[in-house]
Structures are given as structure tokens and as C-alpha cells.
Amino acid sequence: MRAIQITEFGGPEVLNLVEVLEPKPEPGQVLIDVSRAGVNYADTHNADNSYLAPVSLPFIPGGEVVGTTADGRRVVALLAGAGGYAQRAVAPEDWAFEVPESVDDVSALGLIVQGTTAWMLLRQCAHLQPGESVVVHAAAGGVGTLAVQLARSLGAGRVIAAASSERKRELALELGADVAVDPAAEDLTAALREANGGRRVDVVLEMTGGRVTDQSIAALAPLGRLVFFGMASREAPKPIDPRNLLGHSSTVAGFWLPHAFTKPGLMQRAMTELITAVTDGSLRVIPGGDYPLAEARRAHEDLLARRTIGKLVLDPNR
User: Fold this and answer.
1) How many helices (H) and strands (E) does the chain have?
2) Which secondary-structure segment (H or E) carries 225?
3) pLDDT grade for 234, boundaries at 50, 70 and 90
């Protein structure tokens, strides 16, 4: 079968289209004939071996697929680390969720990682309360576009989107953000407070790192919460002194999706709510690009250059 394989760590140039043997499911696994594979920012970290979970060479990148099982079920699934950039993939049976025909492939893939991440950030980590203000960084990305919509549906009092271009900020406003700011502002703390009517903010969803994290923490209101779920800039924030959190009773939390599986039923609850929202039209996954499998390098290049919005996918049959 056709697949993208990585035999050395590096940038997009290490993604190579090759012919490999078809994977064989073990007990408790399901073989999926892949119609689309999702592309996530985490895949770029896997390629250069900077992700939380280490990988061994050689490997097929990609942690999510949508397709059909041997018994005819249409499912979207998380994989056990990798294997998605291929015509067929195996997934743990418990990590495969049935998808109704009313939900297209791109939407299904937008929900399994990015949708559930947005859901967990707001519900499980930040415990968003009605009327609270929410800052969504990378608001035009896969997680961000969904987080903006979910924050609004959960009763946020003010949704503040941070995005790096005018086009991306306009998209965030279309999706329900009250105001959009440029995260490159020299004083981001002041920009966030100004966007919130001069008040400090209650919740920040942050995946950039570096100064963006530092200045977002400084913008938190008393009892405010920042949830850190990625480091796209690859720049670490300053170390946090717990004593400095006392000044505003601030909470800084981290989130990594695999830990959601340690709570029985949590992922199923999230997926059920998200699929229902897409089906009834209250939640929209933004397509970000449908690339042939042979152009996986270009997908990574576009993602790293921040040229993309929404959900990126690969078509293994092209």
C-alpha cells in the first residue's frame, strides 16, 4: 500500500511516499480502509522528534483517520501513536467512533482530535462558567475555530480571538468571536485587557509558547485560568514561580489529549456532543485543505508557515 514514511528526523523534507506492507490488526484492534487522514501540528513535532511521546524510526506519521472497517462501519479513529498517512491503518477498537453519513470526512477528522481538545480545554480544564471572558489563541486553526464556537455556545460573556493575520481574525469574528487581536502586539497583556473592556480575562487557551504565554498569564483576572496545550513557536515560556500565582489566584494548567482516555466514557461523551452539534448545524468544522497523500510535505510546509486555517487532511487515494 502507499504511505508516507519517515526514516530520519527533520522538517517536511523527511516525509517520503513509499510502498509498504499493509498493517495487520492485533486482538482489540480494527483495520480501517482510510478515506482521509488528518494532519495536525503535532505531526510536525513527531517529524523532528520534539513531541511529548517519542517515536522510533522508521515510522508512518499521522494520528487520526476516517474510513471504513472490514465489517462496513464508517468510523473516525485515533491511532496508537502513528500510522495514519497511509491507505490503511489499524486503531484500537475503543478509539474508533462511528460517524453518521450526515458528517463528512473533514468534519469527522476535525472533531476527533481538535474538536475534543477544544471541548476538554473549555469543559474539563478551564471549567468555563457562563459570562466569563475567554481568549482563544491561534483562533483560526483547527482547535481555535472550534473553541471560538464552543465558547460561545457554552455561554462565554466575551470571546477574544488572537490570530496572526487580518484574514484569520476576520474568520474568527465570523465564527462568533466578539473581538480579534494580533498576538504580535508589543504589549499583548494590554491588548487582551483592552479587548475585554479594560478588564483582566478569565480564561486563556494557549498553544503558542514563549512571550505569548508569558503575557497571557499576566492578563489573567483573579481566579483566572490559562490552559497550555501546545508550543507552536517551539519557544518555551518563562519558568512559573508558584508564588507569583498568588497575586491573582491564577491557575496555569496543561492538557494533552491522550490523558482523556484515562477517564472512562469521557471521550465518548465529547464525541457524542460534538457530532450532535455538527449534525444540527450549531458547530462547523472549517476545511483547511485537502492534499493528495503525495503532497504531505506541502501540507507540513503550509502548516509550519502558518498559511493555513481550519482542518487539513490527506487523501491517500491521490
Assistant:
1) 10, 15
2) strand 220-228
3) confident
